[in-house]
Design brief:
The longest helix is centred in the middle third of the chain and has 31 residues. The protein starts with a strand and ends with a helix. It is of the alpha/beta class. The protein has 27 helices and 29 strands. It binds flavin-adenine dinucleotide (FAD) and flavin mononucleotide.
């Protein structure tokens, strides 16, 4: 087979090697515009796992790479005069030029023709080759030539970076340096790649870059400015640029590339040409070389190119998507880094280490138990003012707000049970809430409990508008207080335009088959075409509903609740005022955000006045309508949270969505946590995170990284009322309190957990 590898980077060269190894009769040429020793970039990082894969494919190349590796174990973070160091991370680095020379030598030895200083200019010259591989990097000409087929999606990321080198030693740790300059924060990613040279990538936001005037500097001036910024880290060494071949400025924006298709007839994309992964997770070379193995393998094993390409793409696309997802988390962390620079160095370090969400709390414990123990002690000491005798996971650290202390940071999220009769919670509710309180969570929230009959979502919703309701709730709260350490939180709400609908397990949000009641809303906007058009609230309605909230808040206090939450999320009445999707008013309660917030704030202030000063209050919001700029965005949510905080909320419970049938949410693990993170760190407020958080590891990572103060779990508590007690057993933590009648069960669970390594280690 005649094979043309267009581009002589790691992808093209390694494919040529891998194909020759499988079939020495292939006639392969690698075409490259540069000379053999003339390359951009300095060093690249590869993991041991990748090296093992290379070993299986071609032991000789892997051995040569290993010989040139620089190994290091630590990550060091330089920040506000402190250097924090954690261990056990296991990296190895190699100079890009050295890597390419190894691959070039090996390819030549196997009989591959290397054609240097040859420009690839489209595909015309390569038409009659049997297989044409577009391995010409992130700005691939091959991809451009067939763009209508490959349909590349190119996401230009926000930060500016410049890839430099230095002879200053960074041989003891992968090093991050954060420097505050008069023009904003500038940071560097530095790592050794041979005995006397290190990579030094400098990065900053576009605003900082402009304020520095980097847009007007030539490459030498930019390098000199970077030297001045990082002088104290460079120990008198220079920064070295080697990207003069790039036209104009040596600063770049990272392009995230993903193509809808990777092949067309006999042309296939490989490496950065097909998909890129941001350098902050150091996996681009790994992706390129592992994809080269897969492509060579399938071309060899499959009967024709079409099926080879299909199998190659099926297998590698999944890997690419996983890495791009981790890379997106990581790149967003750096893009938002100024949000985190108020954090204590310990927390900043933790947040940096876990930024891609590939490294979890327990992974960090495995890597460096001492460092993690120190970080956990810091967390507890900051929260409680006492240095603990022994560190414990953040989820088990008490949380204090006003006069209330929660025993831990796990919250049973509000969940409508649709089991009430005329608003009265019955035996179902008693058993349901009692079980969750026995299960160890620090705070058990009730379902949305409605302030009027009309304000119910469905006929099965609980209420707090009659003495029977108050008595029934009191019975539940008294049990919780008498038998468990949990605190009881009441969520008050009014359904507004989403009222008079069916039970959760029927057609959710759809109108009742019969017996519908009138619904009210800020505007005559129905939830969906099949829901009723609500009656527009008059000022008198607003007074009535506000007074109903006040009356319910008084009842909640008398019933003994410790915590009150105002439900301003999910498209119900108060949420419907906040989001412009459902609020079309032209009076003082519609239009600007300030106007749309006026009524929800009025309700909040009114209930704060009657709710005891020693008891906390939270507000649940939808931080994203998921409908683009038309609706609430996470940036609006920071402003909304700030207004609620000024209005008396101690904490913002950060949910999202359910405000429009046109919403297009992006689901995933912990998918709403970024909104909590933003509100907490940009707005400097206390928050609860919620949404697809189900592992103790998720909870600990969120808390320790400062992304929330409390963590709400809903569905996990439906599946397992004892989620917190079970999490403690899995983590080997003995400090949680089990109900006395269940102590024998506790002891057995602990014994089993301590004997079964995988049970404790798996989290
Ligand atoms: C700042 C930075 C740091 C990085 N750090 C790491 C890291 O630590 N670890 C890691 O794994 N990855 C890292 N990467 C990513 C890594 O460099 C790429 O993912 C990897 O090089 C992809 O290999 P490739 O062969 O697909 O593309 P490239 O390495 O870009 O190779 C493409 C080749 O094609 C040639 N070419 C392009 N156009 C033409 C043309 N028209 N005519 C002739 N020749 C052409 C180029 O000269 C080049 O040699 C980093 C990337 C950047 C930007
Ligand atoms: C059955 C059920 C009922 C719910 N009822 C409410 C509710 O009454 N009030 C509320 O704010 N959220 C309610 N939610 C949303 C949850 O509190 C939570 O935000 C959501 O389920 C995401 O968390 P999870 O991924 O842990 O389930 C409900 C969720 C479920 C599954």
């Amino acid at each position: 087979m005649r094979v043309a590898c267009l581009g002589g980077g790691p992808a093209g060269l390694y494919l040529a090697i891998s194909m020759k190894l499988r079939q020495p009769t292939h006639d392969i040429v690698v075409v490259e515009r540069n000379r053999p020793h003339d390359t951009f970039g300095w060093g690249v990082v590869l993991s041991n796992e990748t090296l093992d894969r290379l070993d299986d494919n071609d032991a000789e190349t892997a051995a040569a790479i290993r010989q040139s590796f620089v190994y290091w174990d630590d990550i060091a973070v330089h920040y506000r005069g402190e250097v924090m160091r954690s261990s056990g991370h296991g990296f190895s680095g190699i100079g890009r030029r050295r890597l390419l020379n190894i691959l070039q030598d090996r390819a030549q030895a196997l009989g591959v023709e290397l054609r240097f200083q040859t420009e690839i200019d489209g595909l015309a010259a390569w038409r009659d080759w049997d297989l044409v591989v577009g391995a010409d990097g992130a700005n691939s000409r091959v991809r451009t030539a067939l763009a209508p087929v490959f349909k590349p999606d190119i996401d230009v990321r926000a930060c500016k970076y410049i890839w430099l080198g230095t002879q200053q030693k960074f041989d003891d740790a992968f090093t991050f340096v954060f420097e505050e300059t008069p023009h904003g924060w500038v940071w560097a990613h530095a790592y050794q790649f041979d005995t006397d040279t290190a990579t030094f990538i400098v990065e900053c936001s576009e605003e900082t870059w402009r304020r520095w005037g980097f847009d007007r500097m030539n490459a030498d001036e930019a390098v000199a400015a970077c030297e001045a910024i990082f002088a104290k880290n460079l120990g008198g060494h220079r920064l070295l640029g080697n990207s003069r071949h790039l036209r104009g400025s040596a600063w770049l924006n990272f392009n995230r590339v993903l193509c809808e298709r990777w092949s067309h007839q006999n042309v296939v994309l490989l490496g950065d040409a097909a998909a890129t992964a941001h350098f902050s997770i150091g996996s681009g070379t790994k992706l390129a070389m592992e994809s080269a193995i897969a492509l060579a393998q399938y071309v060899d094993s499959e009967p024709d190119l079409e099926s080879a390409f299909r199998r190659y793409e099926d297998e590698r696309r999944l890997e690419v998507l996983k890495l791009q997802s981790a890379a997106r988390n990581s790149v967003e962390w750096f893009e938002d880094v100024e949000r985190y620079l108020h954090l204590d160095p310990v927390q900043l370090n933790y947040s940096l280490l876990t930024r891609s969400q590939r490294i979890s709390h327990e992974n960090l414990r495995q890597r460096d138990p001492q460092w993690l123990g120190g970080a956990e002690s810091w967390f507890e000491c900051t929260a409680t003012g006492h240095k603990p005798a022994a560190p414990r996971a953040p989820m088990f650290v008490p949380f204090r707000v006003r006069d209330l202390e929660l025993a831990n940071r796990v919250v049973v999220s509000p969940m409508d049970q649709y089991r009430a009769v005329d608003g009265t919670p019955g035996d179902w509710h008693f058993v349901h809430y009692a079980e969750r309180a026995k299960g160890g969570a620090g705070l058990v929230m009730t379902e949305m409990t409605c302030v009027t009959p009309q304000g119910r979502i469905s006929p099965g919703c609980t209420g707090l508008y009659s003495p029977e309701h108050e008595d029934a709730w009191r019975r539940i709260v008294e049990f919780i207080h008498a038998e468990t350490l949990a605190k009881a939180g009441m969520q008050l709400g009014h359904s507004g335009p989403k009222g008079s609908t069916q039970l959760g397990w029927e057609r959710i949000d759809a109108p009742l088959e019969s017996g519908n009641w009138e619904v009210i809303a800020p505007s005559a906007v129905s939830w969906s075409p099949s829901n009723q058009v609500p009656r527009v609230m008059t000022r008198a309605d607003m007074d009535d509903v506000r007074d109903a909230f006040v009356s319910s808040a008084k009842m909640a206090d008398r019933a003994g609740f410790d915590w009150l939450e105002l439900h301003c999320a999910h498209g119900y009445l108060l949420s419907a005022f906040i989001t412009p999707i459902s609020n079309r008013r032209t009076d003082d309660y519609g239009g600007s955000l300030e106007n749309r917030m006026r009524y929800p704030l009025e309700v909040l202030r009114a209930i704060r006045q009657v709710w005891p000063a020693g008891k906390p209050m939270s507000v649940r919001i939808s931080a994203h309508d998921w409908v683009g700029e038309e609706g609430i965005t996470p940036s609006d949510a920071v402003a909304i949270a700030g207004l609620f905080s000024e209005g008396g909320a101690d904490l913002i419970d950060v949910s999202a969505g359910q405000t429009s049938i046109d919403a297009r949410p992006v689901y995933g693990r912990m998918f709403q946590t970024p909104f909590s993170d933003r509100i907490r760190n940009e707005g400097r407020l206390k928050t609860m995170a919620v949404g697809n958080i189900y592992e103790p590891d998720h909870v600990n990572s969120i808390l320790m990284a400062g992304r929330a103060d409390l963590v709400c779990l809903a569905r996990p508590h439906l599946a397992d009322p004892y989620w917190t007690l079970h999490a403690a057993a899995r983590l080997g933590y003995d400090g949680v309190t089990w109900p006395k009648p269940y102590l024998a069960g506790r002891d057995q669970l602990r014994r089993l957990a301590s004997r079964n390594e995988s049970m404790t280690g798996k989290v």
